[in-house]
Specification:
The protein is mainly α. It is 49% helix and 5% strand. It contains 30 helices and 10 strands. Strand 7 and strand 8 form a beta hairpin.
């Protein structure tokens, strides 16, 4: 819901792919990727979730003793511990006169943290993140539980210059020169307590348009405003944020709804280059009557040669047109590059564009560059380099020896790097499955299990991939191993049932589905597949009841509607069967078999068989 405009909307990504659109009577449910609403408060991989950002100390977990999902929270507001971590010791110390006199407060103020430490507090909510493990609460090290850079792999939330491409938060900050070359943190401009603006010295400011956000550091610009902006000092065009932090409509969100956000990459305006990315430049945002080309010429006339982009940004932006892998590696895989966000973005693009599993022709120069990057101080860069080597050349003896040595040398970072490493390999495994090569996906999951052999999710995904190839015996073994490591996985039990059923073990399949339902009675896929087994065994009334439970639990399963309609029609409930077909067609409107069944049911309503 967009409060400012008073409109409900949905994201059509993954279905109609028209961006974010208003909900109207004409919008088909089949087009709406967010239907039915399925987000939960708390962090649970199984569901789209809001993590803990819309409350404090939110935890969601499957309680196997109950069994049911439990959600706990301290508050649905943001409390002190959301940012500062556990506060019990702080409360005790402020009551102790001696502790107060010694200025010991039992918490670390953001002002005393490194710039990355300060950002890490804000990234808990103000960043897209890949989850590495569950159980995070504020006060624990964020990088042990989440990665801020990994979403760039595959999702490409940001362009290589840091501007938001699809839905994102404020991670563009990591591309800003004010951060890369300076010490800018979120609290350099934002007061976390008042929610107001301030300058770098902490002086409160009236709002985002107050230039002192910038000129408290860039004093020379503030001393000669018009010489820098080429606009009247009193005009909106002379405000720092007008040119360097414009509101941008994230391109993949579309233009049907206004959802612009301030550009935290703090870029130099480049009208033509921005337009080439699909971004409305800050100049065009005001001067709508002029073309980007004309505005680009004006900028060149005023400022001459603009400040060059970081080499990592330029290389990553130009990578999609490069066809030579060695040349691309020479430009993008640069161990000396200090612009970490741009380096990671380029590495991610390179891996997606040029790497696949077990490449016998992978050049030695590419391998050497990845080996150099495997010692990078940034955890995400290091893990991506190691995972890329493992993916593309991990079967080579020399590379395998190198990877083993790097694992031994990780020290305190070992668990953090391993978890990121397997996320990267999991991405490539998923990509192979999406392309229709489940066998290749299963092989890459096996590589990931070399790094995290007790990762229940990897065993499950490998089992599902093996089942897709028809190799059911190892699929069952892999899924059963996942359940040994984590018994509270309803979805793993569903997949176990599917593989057992395909082997002909109908009783074993039913046992798996029923156990899944003992954990979560609204597990729609368990009801649906249980209905399939009942139907195959000729227990049609029980099949119909299971399908009814499936559509009650998740109305967006079209096959459940269609199969329920089949059961209803067989029992003579033609009108109800037609309603179920129509309900399924809301989500799968082009299903030819269902459309044919609909016509047949309509004819039966008009001219019922003599037996009725």
């Amino acid at each position: 819901f967009i409060r400012r405009e008073g409109v409900w909307f949905c994201n059509t990504g993954g279905r109609a792919n028209r961006g974010w659109v208003p909900i109207t009577p004409q919008l088909a449910l089949a087009d709406c990727g967010d239907w039915p609403p399925a987000r939960v408060l708390g962090d649970e991989l199984r569901f789209s979730n809001c993590q803990s950002c819309h409350g404090s100390q939110i935890q969601v977990s499957l309680d196997s003793a109950t069994p049911k999902y439990e959600t706990t929270f301290s508050s649905l507001g943001i409390n002190c511990e959301s940012c500062h971590g556990p506060g019990r010791r702080h409360l005790a110390l402020v009551k102790d006169a001696q502790a107060v006199a010694s200025e010991e407060i039992g918490m670390s103020p953001l002002a005393t943290l490194t710039k990355d430490g300060s950002l890490g507090v804000c990234w808990q909510c103000h960043a897209l993140k890949d989850r590495l493990q569950g159980g995070f609460v504020s006060g624990k090290p964020l990088d042990a539980y989440y990665s801020v850079h990994l979403p760039q792999l595959g999702e490409r939330a940001h362009f290589a210059d840091g501007r938001v491409r699809t839905f994102g938060y404020q991670e563009g900050h990591l591309w800003s020169d004010c951060y890369v070359s300076g010490g800018m943190t979120c609290t350099s401009c934002h007061d976390p307590h008042s929610q107001g603006y301030r300058d770098v010295n902490g002086t409160p400011l009236a709002g985002r348009d107050d230039d002192r956000q910038c000129t408290s550091c860039h004093q020379a610009k503030g001393a000669a405003v018009e010489a820098h902006t080429r606009h009247s000092a009193a005009s909106a065009g002379s405000r720092c944020v007008a040119c360097h932090m414009p509101y941008l409509q994230e391109p993949e969100i579309g233009t049907a709804l206004r959802y612009a956000r301030s550009d935290h990459a703090i870029p130099v305006p480049r009208p033509a280059a921005d337009a080439a990315l699909g971004i409305t430049s800050s100049c065009r945002g005001c001067h709508t009557d002029r073309t980007e080309q004309a505005l680009n010429a004006q900028v060149a006339d005023w400022y001459g040669t603009l400040k060059p982009r970081a080499s990592a940004i330029t290389a990553a932006l130009e990578l999609p047109t490069e066809t030579d892998r060695e040349k691309a590696a020479g430009r993008v895989l640069r161990a000396e590059e200090k612009h970490t966000a741009a380096l990671f973005a380029g590495m991610a693009l390179f891996a997606e564009q040029f790497l696949s599993a077990d490449m016998p022709t992978l050049e030695r120069e590419v391998i050497e560059r990845l080996e150099q990057l495997s010692s990078h101080p940034n955890l995400d860069v290091r893990a991506l380099a190691l995972a890329s080597l493992h993916l593309a050349a991990g079967e080579r003896g020399a590379v395998r020896t190198f990877l083993a040595a790097r694992l031994k040398a990780l020290g305190a970072d070992e668990s953090r790097v391993r978890s990121r490493w397997t996320v990267v390999l999991g991405f490539f495994a998923d990509r192979e499955r999406d392309r229709g090569d489940a066998s290749a996906g299963a092989a890459i999951y096996a590589k990931a299990l070399e790094i995290e052999p007790d990762n229940a999710r990897l065993h499950l995904n490998r089992g599902v991939a093996l089942a897709q190839t028809g190799d059911y015996a190892p699929a069952v073994a892999s899924i059963e191993r996942s359940l040994v490591l984590n018994p509270s996985q309803p979805l793993a039990l569903v997949n176990l049932g599917i593989s057992r059923s395909a082997q002909g073990d109908k009783m074993g399949a039913m046992a798996a589905y029923q156990k899944a339902l003992s954990f979560n009675v609204r597990e729609a896929l368990a009801w649906f597949n249980l209905g399939n087994v009942y139907f195959e065994l000729g227990r049609e009334s029980e099949a119909g009841a299971a399908y009814a439970k499936a559509v009650e639990s998740d109305p967006s399963l079209p096959l459940a509607h269609f199969y329920l309609a089949r059961a209803l029609a067989k029992s003579g409930a033609i009108a109800r069967a037609l309603r179920e077909v129509d309900a399924g067609l809301e989500f799968d409107p082009q299903n030819a078999e269902a459309l044919g069944a609909r016509e047949q049911l309509q004819r039966m309503l008009v001219s019922p068989p003599a037996s009725q």
